[in-house]
Known about the structure:
Elements: E1 5-10, E2 13-18, H1 29-43, E3 50-55, H2 66-69, H3 92-99, E4 104-108, E5 111-113, H4 115-122, E6 125-128, E7 133-135, H5 149-153, H6 159-168, E8 172-173, H7 174-180, E9 185-186, H8 190-202, H9 206-218, H10 224-238, H11 242-252
Parallel strand pairs: 2-3, 3-4, 4-6, 5-7, 6-9
Antiparallel strand pairs: 1-2, 7-8
Helix pairs in contact: 1-3, 3-4, 9-10
Amino acid sequence: MSDRVLLTVENGICHVRLNRPEKMNALDPAMFEGIIGAIDELSGRSDIKVVVVSGEGRAFSAGLDLASFGLSDDGPNDLVPRTHGDANFVQHLGWGWRQLAVPVIAAVHGTCFGGGMQIMAGADIKIIHPETRCAVMEMRWGLIPDMAGFPLWRGNVRDDILRRLVYTNEFFDGTEAQINGFATEVNDEPLARAMDLATEIASKNPDAIVAAKRMCNSLADSTDAELLLAESVEQTDVIYQPNQLEAVAAFFEKRAANFNQASKGSAQVQNAT
Length: 273
């Protein structure tokens, strides 16, 4: 694992920290490799129930580090080949979090520009400090957002607002980010709030959590008939299983549940829907 990205695991919660604080966690090649490595490592683990992503220092991420990539002709110019399922290597930085089987919570503070906005977008739940400085920054550099922002923002950010913010790369704060659909909620201590939510999620039946994320991931592209059938399939796989029975027993016995690991692999990459 690259020192650009740090992982710690406790009680089923994996805390992923972007670790380039001297550069506001700007995305250089080593950071790309570190984030991809973290996603790939988590995809192979069955002991993780929930993931929290945050940035060390005074920023979540300032986005692409142009100085480290340069703008020369020898840079990457063919992004069409799919290298990670439906996504390319760059898109996997955002899309990969959504494809993890377990919920991902982003704790965002300080600065969140460009690629940072798209990493945040990959999370299931985004907690943001109200004074976070945000921008969909790519147009400043004559580019478009291409780290899976568009499919991740679909259904969350109002279409005309997204167009304005992409076309102009104007700045907005964390409160506006929540109002506009980029973030789930605003909190003065986003990391503490994210950890509290992670603890709550980690206390639930992991089989049901994995199934619920699959259902949520299917909402954008599935028909009503497909969703109705998927509900039935998922519930059939969960109901009366040991973890579901343990959830009921723990509630009535007023104790913490003692679940087995998710039977379907709680941190395995899901198939794209």
